[in-house]
Amino acid sequence: MCYAGAVNDRAEGYEYPPRVRFELLEKDIDSYRRAADFLNFDNADVLCVQHEFGIYGGAAGSHLLALLKEVRMPVVTTLHTLLREPNEAQRKVMNQISQRSERLVVMARKGAEILREVYEVPEAKIEVIPHGIPDVPLVESATAKAQFGVEGRRVLLTFGLIGPGKGIEHVIEALPAIIQRHPEVVYIILGATHPHLLAHEGERYRLSLEWLAEELGVKEHVIFDNRYVSPTDLREFVNATDIYLTPYLNREQITSGTLAQVFGAGRAVVSTPYHHAEELLAEGRGMLVPFAKPPAITTAVCEYLERPGLIERTQQAAWQSGRDMIWPAVARRYLETFRQACSESRAPARTAFAGWTTGRKTELPALKLDHVVRMTDSTGIFQHAMHTVPDFHHGYCTDDNARAFILCCLLDDLGARPPADSLNGLSTTYLAFLAAALNRDTGGFRNFMSFDRRWLEDAGSEDSHGRALWALGTGTVHAHHTGQQRLCARLFEAGLARVEAFTSPRAWAFCLLGIHEYLRGLPESAAALAAREVLARDLMQLWKNCATPDWPWFEPGATYDNARLSQALLLAGHAMKHAEMQDIGLKSLRWLVSIQTTPSGCFRPIGSNGFCIRGGARAHFDQQPVEAQAMISACLSAYHLTCDPVWSREARRAFDWFLGRNDLSRPLYDPLTGGCADGLHPDRVNENQGAESTLAFHLALAEMTFAQHPLPARA
Length: 715
What we know:
Elements: E1 4-8, E2 20-25, H1 29-41, E3 47-51, H2 63-68, E4 75-79, H3 88-99, E5 103-106, H4 109-119, E6 126-128, H5 142-145, E7 154-159, H6 168-181, E8 185-190, H7 195-201, H8 204-215, E9 222-225, H9 231-239, E10 243-246, H10 257-264, E11 268-271, H11 275-280, E12 287-288, H12 294-306, H13 308-321, H14 327-344, H15 354-357, H16 370-374, E13 385-386, E14 389-390, E15 396-397, H17 398-414, H18 423-437, E16 438-439, E17 444-445, E18 448-449, H19 462-478, H20 482-496, H21 505-521, H22 526-546, E19 557-558, H23 563-575, H24 579-595, E20 612-613, H25 625-642, H26 645-659, E21 669-670, E22 675-676, E23 679-680, E24 685-686, H27 691-708
Parallel strand pairs: 1-2, 3-4, 4-5, 5-6, 7-8, 7-10, 8-9, 10-11, 11-12
Antiparallel strand pairs: 13-14, 15-18, 16-17, 19-20, 21-22, 23-24
Helix pairs in contact: 6-12, 17-18, 17-19, 17-27, 19-20, 19-21, 21-22, 21-23, 22-23, 23-24, 23-25, 25-26, 25-27, 26-27
């Protein structure tokens, strides 16, 4: 059985026949890894890769390497283009493809020469297999012309996806001289504009060709047929052709499927000397003309038209040579190559999801803040979304605006900029919300605000107060402007007085994280130092009152934002030089890791539908993005303080939960919108992309980026 995988260059994909069993999104590197996992799980015997620069995502198509590194079957790669002078990225990709392929297939002997001389590929690894073509009889062109309304005319043809590299303008420039000697000539340009060109420039190139034909007075001799044609219709066009023209401009092209098909159908060809044409048209099987030389095209076309014996001999020679290129012959060559590759393969034993279980280090997704921007108006960031649309009904909250402000601070440190607005503009909006949230009369932060900017309460929860202080403490050091930093410090100090009376352990943890950041900029603050002392000791005492060897945790239940308790005590203990606090932070975090790991090695956060209670059942669902983010942040803090690589691996494992390494093997992060799903249910992903979830992903991504490309340390 043979099945296919397709690369999509647009989000909506394409309608494929059933033979296409999996799809890759061109610019989403994780879709390549998922494809590898699919192939491994399906126990495919061999993978045949079609390689062309410009098809795959990443620098020089490097995303393809993510697939090749993970598959557990032999790889045979067919190379459609080979560059004699590759740039650094292209050479690196080609070298990796060569190393990870049992066989490299080229369609011309010139390609084999380039592989040996430029890329130092061993001869034994190279196969020369021609481009496949349909097996068609050699027919007289006159019999097929009537259906196109060109009977009695001499037909020149170029077909394929239309774009500037085709050099069609040089044929049109040659037409006046050709038509002067042969007024019966008509030139058919068959094919749609290349979709990538169409997306960026529209029909600019095709229109330029039409205008050129009109300017040169040959408009009536040129037929533009702007469409994709079926194989049957294409065969009829080829049958009606007297001379086929490929005036391509790139010498490095070692494969042309259009040339192969027309050549094998026994048509005379006039072509520029790119590598494939040089080989096919040698020894009287066609004519070669210099690149971008219309007079040479005129001479060659007229020579064929004026020498009936020459064109007939050329057609016969091409058709006979093409019998080695028909699909059955090519298929037999490939099957033999596959057999040899399988017999010689030293691929590792197959294991589904092997890359994840071996702790591979992978590239992080690209920053895409579109959904954050979409969820934000002049007041702040909306709490909830209906799919990807902000939900005005629920308005705003301090919790999410605090998270959003922290994200802006992290991204500013990274030098990032969102696409639709300035980072400073976003951070100003979120900070203004936090400033408005502070009730000056009570010193507490309100949490919920309606869409019409009415506060819905006089005081928020201790948790929302803690998150506000966390954001403001972060902004005191990391906000973009001095003015923002000073405002953050003033608001932080105004809200700090209440925290020593808090009873919520998570509020303690959030406050400790904010104090940790605040003291980076103002290390002598007596109020902050005193508050840290009280809260850290309260948290440590909570552990001592509850923890047992079987339940090394702070409370009788592990509920939400769990890893923040461990992280806060770990950081406070380190700053206070309190070894016992640090030890408790690490010990509790290890336990939390152990109960949030599936037998297959995936991260499984404690579900919000019941949580995890000592002596009782543990809820596996609904899994929340904020739990994955908390675990990532805590593990990275542990890694920065201990330099133990186990913590960086745990952070990556939790981050992969967002990308599809989870109970359902479904990604929660959507690279097309930049949003993150609101949770993982037992049978589905919650498709709403609310603020908390989206911010959880982007905060996690920012912290993972710091870990891979560290700037000044952020423990």
